Each structure stands twice: as structure tokens, then as C-alpha cells.
Amino acid sequence: MWPRFKQFLKGFADCFGRREPAGHLETYVRGQFSNLPRKSIEPIAYEFDTPPRTLQQFLSRAKWDEDRMRDRIQERVAAEHFHPQNVGIVDETSFVKKGKKTPGAQRQHCGTSGKTDNCTVTVHLACAGPDGFRTLLDGELFLPRSWSDDRERCREAGIPDDMVYRPKWRIALELLDRSVANGVKLPWLTFDEGYGLVPEYPAELDRRGQWYVGEVPRNFHGWCKRPEPLHKDHHPRSVRELKVKNPSASRVDNLAKFSPQFRKQPWQTFHVKDSTKGPIIWQAKYATFHISHAGTPGRPCLLIVARNALDHNEVKYFVSNAPPKTKLAELLRVGFSRYPIERCFEDDKTEVGMDHFEVRNYLSLKRHLIISSLSLLFLAEVNQQDRGKTIGADGLPDPHGGQRDDLLSVDERQETPEVS
Fold first, then answer.
1. Domain around 257
2. DSSP 3-state assignment of 96?
């Protein structure tokens, strides 16, 4: 593997002005690939006969261009791993940390422990393809308000003065914009309801021309039938109001139950996933939908309602700006594509040690995340090359219960509502 790794690293040679930092990168990544139970700086340094202080300075003070390394990762994915069915996936992960010195650490919701805990949270963008390829494109620290408001604390942690609190969905947009600027083409984007609950997020994706299928909470509001404005179209949008006779925006769970657009439709059945317990079957409908932006309808999009065929109480709601003739099977394929980023987090933490960092400096954390993405990309390429271009036998999902990429309707109906 190491000759391949050295060849892989040549693509990042211009990130370093001197030979020493490039050598430390190789040491650091070798440590991430090792069988060490703890892959933090000190164990790696001792394993490879390197002074721990040398690796500490490699992350915190040495002169090398971590932003260029991130660019090179994205450029490589853009050049070598594009597929018209690729899906970009937005999600966050957390790292349980003791004390208050780790950048961004505070008591907040921690997905790792499943409760409120002292942790650091980072937001990520992943790319997953139908050939089984998956990797993290980018990641950034979520800076809580308590940190952002305490600039002295931020300076002690090396957090730049221009880095302030942004909601996670804003960070997700920054990650997408950076990747697109480096040539990454994501035909689709998906996200969970933590990002979908903010109407501004899908609106911003729409402005960027980014197709998405994202989950929204059941209390997400909008209309299946666009309400009429009080004023004619020549009036400025800023002063438009809706006619009194128009219904107010409704929750998506109520629309799915009571709106004629959904009640008149039969459920369509799809084989969505294969798990260790057998196939997972979902039923779905979709209709035209207008997202409520502060009580005003947005552009027409689609509302997809899906329920577990064996447990009708398990219901998911998705919105999408997909082209009008997009098949429901394709929308569900994208909407149920968040699994690969979970595997990325799992692989990055178990195989690479992404959560083993013990740093109190923002630059060190940033560099660690970028190097971890580099390591994950190399492993993804090796896995893809050694495994071939198919997912298991005959294109079936992998043994971990991965999602099907050949999502088909059981009843083979593909009716699409008109979007107007």
C-alpha cells in the first residue's frame, strides 16, 4: 500500500514549501493508518521515533498551506470521481471533549453520546457515488455563540477575529460554495431535518441552481396550492400580501393527510434499502408545494411524503426543487442517501482516528480535519480500486446495510405531478 500512498501524496506536493513538513505529513498519516489504539500526536510520534513536539508544531505552527491541501482534495474528487448520480450530503458530527480549551467545546447536543454533553461540533460535506465511492469533501468548526461573543477566549484558541457564529446551515453553504469553486459537481444534495427546518436554506440552494432533496420536520409550513396575492404582479414583492380568503400555510403532516393533492393519490411502494434484517420497504407520494417564507409562498417545488410500509407511524417528509419530470424513485434515492456520510464519519473515526485529536488551537484542529479527509480519500480510492466498480455481488448493497442505487418502484408506476 505504501508505494501507492507515496504516489498519492505527490498530488499534494505544492502544499509544502519545504521537505520537512511534507515528511511530517507522511508520518502523521502513517500513524492514522496504524493499529495504534489512540491516534493522537504523542502515540504517533513515539511509534515513528519522532519528537512529539515536532508533530505538535507541524499542526500548530509549521508553514504549509492547509487551504491548498483542501483545494487539492476537492479538485481530485472533481477530476476523478464525478458521476451523474453523485449525491452531496450535509451533516455534522461531534467529539466529546473534557475541559473548556478545545476550540468550540461547550455543553451542547452531542450526536456521538446521544445527549447534551461537553463537545466540539463540526459541519461536513460528503460526496457519495453509485459505485460505492464516498469521501468527505470539507469540514468546518461550528462556533457557538458563547465562543463568538468572547473574543478573548477565541484569540487564546487561535480562532481568527473574522470567524464568528454562523448557524450550521450557513456553514453548510460555505462548504458547498468552496467545493463548487474547486470544480466539484454535485448533481444532487441531501440533508436532514436539522438543516431542512430553516426555509432560507433550500431557498439559498435554489438560488445557486443546486438540485436537492432534503428532509424537513413535520411542522414545516407551506401550501400545495399557491395562494393568490392581494396585489397585482406589477407591485413590488416587498409589499405583497395574501388575500384574506386564502388559507394560511399548513404543516406538511396535515397537507399529507388532508390536502386533495395527496388524498387522491395512491401510495407507491419502493424497495429502498437492504439491511441485516432484510429489505426495507417504503411507500411514497408527492405533489407540488410552495414553501412558506415568513408567510409568503416561494417558488413551486415538490413535497414528498414517505412512510415505512411495515410501520405507518414512521413518516418522513422531503422537499425538492428537482425538475418537474423527475421520477419519484430518483427523488427517494437521493432523499435516502444520507447513510454514506454516516459511514464516512465511522470510517474516519475508527480507521483514521479523526476524533482522537487533543489540540487547543484552531489551526491545529483545522489541519487535523483536512489531513483526516486526505487519509479517508486515499482509503476510499484504494478500496474502490481493489474492489472494482460494483457494490458487492450483482450491484447489491454492502454487508453494512447500505442503500440500493437501483431504486425501483414495486408497482412500476412513475406518475409525476405537474409543477406550475
1. 213-335
2. strand
- CA 135 – CA 155 distance, rounded (Å): 32
Question: Average pLDDT for residues 2-17, to the nearest whole number?
Answer: 92
User: Do 301 and 351 belong to one domain?
Assistant: no
**Cell numbers standing for residue 241:** 400580501
Q: What is the 3-state secondary structure (H, E, C) of 285-336?
A: EEEEEEEEECCEEEEEEEEEEEEECCEEEEEEEEEECCCCCCCHHHHHHHHC
Convert the pLDDT of each residue in 340-393 to its tens digit: 999 999 999 999 999 999 899 999 999 999 999 999 999 999 988 887 543 332
Instruction: Please check whether residues 351 and 327 belong to one and the same domain.
Output: no
Q: Residue 327 domain-assigned?
A: yes
Determine the pLDDT at residue 386: 84
- Determine the 3-state secondary structure of 264 from DSSP: coil
32, 146: one domain: yes
Helix (H) or strand (E) holding 128: strand 115-128
Residue pLDDT, tens place only, 218-266: 999 999 998 876 555 555 444 445 445 667 899 999 999 999 999 999 9
Q: Which residues pair with 127 in a beta bridge?
A: 88, 135
Task: Please tell me whether residues 243 and 307 are part of one structural domain.
Answer: yes
Q: Is residue 159 assigned to a domain? A: yes
Q: What is the C-alpha to C-alpha distance for residues 59 and 358, in angstroms, rounded to an integer?
A: 11
Is 75 in a helix, a strand, or coil?
A: helix
What pLDDT, on the 0 to 100 scale, is given for residue 265? 95
Domain count, the chain: 2
- Position 252 in a domain: yes
In a domain, 280, yes or no: yes
